[in-house]
Amino acid sequence: MTSLRIATWNIAHGRGLRPIQGLQTRRSMQAHLRRIAALLTKLDADVVALQEIDQESSWAGNFDHLEYLRAHAGYAHALHGVTTRRGGLFKLCYGNAFLSRHPLEEGEAVTFGRRTVGEKGFLFAEITVGGRRVPLINLHLHYRSRRARMEQIGHVFRYLAQRHNARAPYWSVPPVVCGDFNTSGKASDATAGLLAELEYFGGYGLHPQSGRTFPSPLPTRLLDFVLVPAEVRVARCEIVRSWLSDHRPVVAEIELG
After folding, report:
1. φ, ψ for residue 163 (rounded to 5)?
2. Which of 9, 15, 35, 244 qualifies as a cystine partner to 249, CB 3.0-4.6 A?
3. Domain span holding position 90
4. Per the structure, how many domains does the chain have?
5. CA distance 239 to 183
6. How does pLDDT run across 8-64, given as a tens digit for each residue?
7. Cβ proximity of 139 and 119 under 8 Å
8. What is the 3-state secondary structure (H, E, C) of 105-125?
9. Is it the case that residue 187 has pLDDT exceeding 90?
């Protein structure tokens, strides 16, 4: 039995619980990222899906947060999927990312729109674990509009269906999907919509099935998930108590039978 431990975490641009990331120095932001890296080391995940992680942004110290975390958390591989990019005086470059102990292949970042601030999207990659090829999706959906989230879910599904048509002979399991869904929790919102679309692959399980991840000090909402194909067993899933971001991380251990 081959196990794979996956974590998903919106790290809020490395600002911690501060309302705006631009209110701290590069030095203090690096100190906070080292605390995040220390927790990642403790979580001991094979793959970490990160949202709201910056590359070279004016408001986040003008350095590569992913490379900084990779080095301090001891991961061999990293892949950044930029969804917001803007030049000029107020330079922005951020999005979603993977840290992994296994090589990240077939990597592709997809952006939902063209906004220069706050644009969302997803990152695709494949890893090989114990001889099994596992496709991964790390997504971040619109935080305010249910209608926008549902449109984005459709975008994700069409992409996965197209990828499946091209890559199915190489995949050992259907894609594992994780990230920040920003869902309202209603039956008509993003998680239910994506689960319905993923019936195409034979059905999925939603994890965690209970608990709350946001806001981290006193959480009231469950926004962060790992969606696992029905044929894959989930040995364990937990929400990790942490105040290093406004989201709490989710960790799932799955068994690729």
Report:
1. -60, -40
2. 9
3. 2-256
4. 1
5. 17
6. 999 999 999 988 887 789 999 999 999 999 999 999 999 999 999 999 999 999 999
7. no
8. EEEEEEECCCCCCCCCEEEEE
9. no
146: domain CATH number is 3.60.10.10
Residue 241 DSSP label: P
End-to-end CA distance of the chain: 5
Q: Cα-flanking dihedrals φ and ψ of residue 121, to 5°?
A: 180, -160
Give the whole-angstrom CA distance, residue 227 versus residue 159: 16
Q: Is the dihedral of CA 14, 17, 19, 23 positive or negative?
A: negative
The reply to whether omega before 215 is within 30° of 0 (cis) is yes
pTM value surpassing 0.90: yes
In the block, residue with structure tokens 């999005």: 95
Q: How far is residue 231 CA from its own chain's centroid?
A: 22
User: What burial letters (b/e) apply to 174-188, b meaning 16+ CB within 10 Å?
Assistant: bbbbbbbbbbeeeee
Angstrom distances, CA of residue 162 to CA of 165, 167, 215: 5, 9, 35
In one-letter notation, the amino acid at residue 127 is I
- Tell me the β-bridge partners of 45: none
Sheet with 132-140, side-by-side order of all strands: 105-111, 121-129, 132-140, 176-180, 224-229, 204-207
CB atoms near residue 76 (< 10 Å) = 11
